[in-house]
TrEMBL record:
<feature type="region of interest" description="Disordered">
    <location>
        <begin position="416"/>
        <end position="441"/>
    </location>
</feature>
<feature type="domain" description="OmpR/PhoB-type">
    <location>
        <begin position="243"/>
        <end position="309"/>
    </location>
</feature>
<dbReference type="GO" id="GO:0000160">
    <property type="term" value="P:phosphorelay signal transduction system"/>
</dbReference>
<dbReference type="GO" id="GO:0003677">
    <property type="term" value="F:DNA binding"/>
</dbReference>
<dbReference type="Pfam" id="PF01590">
    <property type="entry name" value="GAF"/>
</dbReference>
<dbReference type="InterPro" id="IPR001867">
    <property type="entry name" value="OmpR/PhoB-type_DNA-bd"/>
</dbReference>
<dbReference type="InterPro" id="IPR003018">
    <property type="entry name" value="GAF"/>
</dbReference>
<dbReference type="InterPro" id="IPR029016">
    <property type="entry name" value="GAF-like_dom_sf"/>
</dbReference>
<keyword id="KW-0238">DNA-binding</keyword>
<dbReference type="GO" id="GO:0006355">
    <property type="term" value="P:regulation of DNA-templated transcription"/>
</dbReference>
<protein>
    <recommendedName>
        <fullName>OmpR/PhoB-type domain-containing protein</fullName>
    </recommendedName>
</protein>
Length: 441
C-alpha cells in the first residue's frame, strides 16, 4: 500500500479485508499482537486504546446534553464554520446516507447531522452530540484518532477498536486555529464501506483547510499583535512574530520560555544554570546558541547584558498560569494543551513544567468537575494519572472509568523494582532555584 493513511489500496476486496481485519482484531484483543494486514496507523491506535483501558465491548459516554451542550457549542470556535461544513458536506452526507460530524479537540462530538435513517442507527452506539469519541474513551475511530495524531485519517470497518462500531467506516481531518496552529477539533464523514475510497479522505481534508481559511478571515492578524510563543504539548516551540511562524529548536524554545518569563532579563550565568544540568558546559556554548537565535528572529528582539527580550512575548504557559491564579479554572484547562516542552531536561524548564501541571491538576481534583477531570484523564498526559482517575471515579463512576482506575491501582499494587514515573528522576535543588521561583510578570 502506497499511502498508509488510506484504508484500502486499489483493487482490494472490501469483504475479504473486513474478514481479515476481524481476525486480526480478535488476535489483538486476545493476545496483544497485531498481525497483517492491519495498517501501522491502526495498529498504533489499537495499542494506545488498550493502554487507555478501552474494552472492545465498550460504548461512548454522553457527557453534555441539552442546555450544557448548547452553551458549549455556541462558544466553540468551530461554531463559526458550521455553515461552511453544511454547505460543503451536507448534501453529500444526505444523498450518500452518511453523517457529517464535528468534534472538539478532546474528541467530544458537537454536531452530528445527515441522513435521518443513518442517524437513528448511529444513535444506538451513542454517536450523538455531546458524546466523547476520543481514542482514550472509545478506541480507534476517525474523529478521535484524527485529533490524537493531528492527521487526516480513514478508519474502515473492523479497524475500529470497539466491536459495535465495526459496521461503520469514517474519514476525518483535524481543523486548526489559523493563528496559533492549535487543534480545535475535527470534521468527519461517517457511513458505509464506500467511504474507504481515497476521495473521502481528500474530501474531508479539503473541507478542513477551507474551514481554517474562513477562520483566518474572521480573525485577521493585527499589525501590532504581540509575539506569541506556543510551548505547551510540544518539544519544539513555535513563535508567531511579524506574520511569520518560526519553528524553534528545543534549546531555542527553552531560552525563549525563560526570557519571556523574566522581562527584566537573566545574566549569562543564570541562563547557563537554568538550561544545562551539566556544569561542564561553557558560556561559549550558550553565546553561540543565543547568536543563532538572534539571527533566526531578526534584529532587535533579543538584547544582552543581561539577556532579555525587548518586546513582550506572550506564552501559552503564562496564559494558563494567569487564568489559574484568577480562579478561571475552565479557561485554564482549555488553554492547557499539554506539558511545557515535554522532552526538555533543562533544570528550570523541568521545574516550571511540574509546577504548572501540578498546580492545574490539583485545582481540577479539588474542584471535582466531571467534564474537566475527564478531559485531563483522557488526554495523553493524564491517562496514567491515578489521582485524577480516582477523583473522576468519585464524581462520574461509569463502567469504563471504574475499569481504568482498577487497572491503574493494580499496577500500583504490583511489586515493582523502581519508583513510580511521577516521582522517578525528579531533579533536586539547583543554584538557579532562587531567581527562577520569582513570580512571572
Amino acid at each position: 500500500m502506497t499511502d498508509p493513511w488510506v484504508a484500502l489500496e486499489p483493487g482490494a476486496d472490501p469483504a475479504e479485508r473486513v474478514r481479515a481485519l476481524r481476525r486480526a482484531h480478535e488476535t489483538f484483543t486476545a493476545v496483544g499482537t497485531v498481525p497483517r494486514p492491519v495498517r501501522s496507523v491502526v495498529a498504533e491506535s489499537w495499542r494506545r486504546s488498550a493502554r487507555a483501558g478501552v474494552g472492545p465491548d465498550g460504548t461512548a459516554s454522553v457527557e453534555l446534553t441539552d442546555g450544557d451542550l448548547g452553551a458549549y457549542r455556541a462558544e466553540h470556535p468551530l461554531a463559526r464554520v458550521m455553515p461552511l461544513f453544511r454547505e460543503l458536506m451536507g448534501t453529500f452526507a444526505a444523498d450518500g446516507e452518511h453523517l457529517l460530524a464535528v468534534c472538539d479537540a478532546h474528541g467530544r462530538l458537537l454536531w452530528v447531522e445527515g441522513h435521518t435513517a443513518t442517524r437513528r442507527l448511529a444513535d444506538r452506539m451513542n454517536f450523538v452530540p455531546g458524546a466523547r469519541w476520543s481514542e482514550n474513551a472509545v478506541g480507534t475511530n476517525a474523529p478521535g484518532t484524527a485529533v490524537a495524531v493531528d492527521r487526516p485519517v480513514q478508519v474502515f470497518a473492523a479497524e475500529h477498536f470497539i466491536r459495535r462500531v465495526q459496521p461503520w467506516t469514517c474519514a476525518a481531518a483535524p481543523v486548526h486555529d489559523p493563528r496559533t496552529g492549535r487543534v480545535l477539533g475535527a470534521v468527519d464523514i461517517t457511513g458505509g464501506d464506500g467511504l474507504a475510497h481515497p476521495h473521502s479522505l481528500g474530501f474531508v481534508q479539503a473541507v478542513a483547510r477551507a474551514a481554517e481559511t474562513q477562520l483566518a478571515l474572521f480573525t485577521p492578524p493585527r499589525a501590532e499583535e504581540a509575539p506569541l510563543l506556543s510551548a505547551l504539548g510540544r518539544d519544539e516551540a513555535e513563535l508567531a512574530l511579524d506574520g511569520r511562524r518560526i519553528r524553534l529548536s528545543r534549546r531555542h524554545s527553552e531560552i525563549l520560555v525563560l526570557l519571556s518569563r523574566h522581562p527584566e532579563g537573566l545574566s549569562g550565568d543564570e541562563l547557563l544554570c537554568s538550561l544545562y544540568a551539566d556544569e561542564s558546559v561553557t558560556p561559549v556554548t550558550l553565546r553561540a546558541e543565543l547568536a543563532r537565535l538572534r539571527r533566526l528572529m531578526g534584529p532587535g528582539l533579543l538584547a544582552s547584558r543581561p539577556y532579555r527580550l525587548t518586546a513582550v512575548v506572550e506564552s501559552d504557559a503564562t496564559v494558563v498560569e494567569r487564568r489559574l491564579e484568577t480562579g478561571a479554572l475552565t479557561a485554564a484547562a482549555e488553554a492547557y494543551t499539554g506539558p511545557l516542552l515535554p522532552g526538555s531536561q533543562a533544570p528550570a524548564i523541568v521545574r516550571l513544567r511540574e509546577r504548572l501541571s501540578g498546580g492545574l491538576r490539583a485545582a481540577l481534583v479539588a474542584h471535582g468537575d466531571p467534564d474537566l477531570l475527564a478531559d485531563w484523564a483522557h488526554a495523553p498526559w493524564g491517562e496514567d494519572d491515578v489521582e485524577v482517575w480516582r477523583a473522576l471515579a468519585a464524581v462520574h463512576p461509569t463502567a469504563p472509568v471504574r475499569a481504568r482506575l482498577a487497572a491503574l491501582e493494580a499496577e500500583l499494587a504490583a511489586p515493582a523494582g523502581r519508583a513510580p514515573a511521577r516521582t522517578r528522576g525528579r531533579p533536586g535543588p539547583s543554584p538557579c532555584a532562587t531567581y527562577l521561583q520569582r513570580p512571572p510578570v
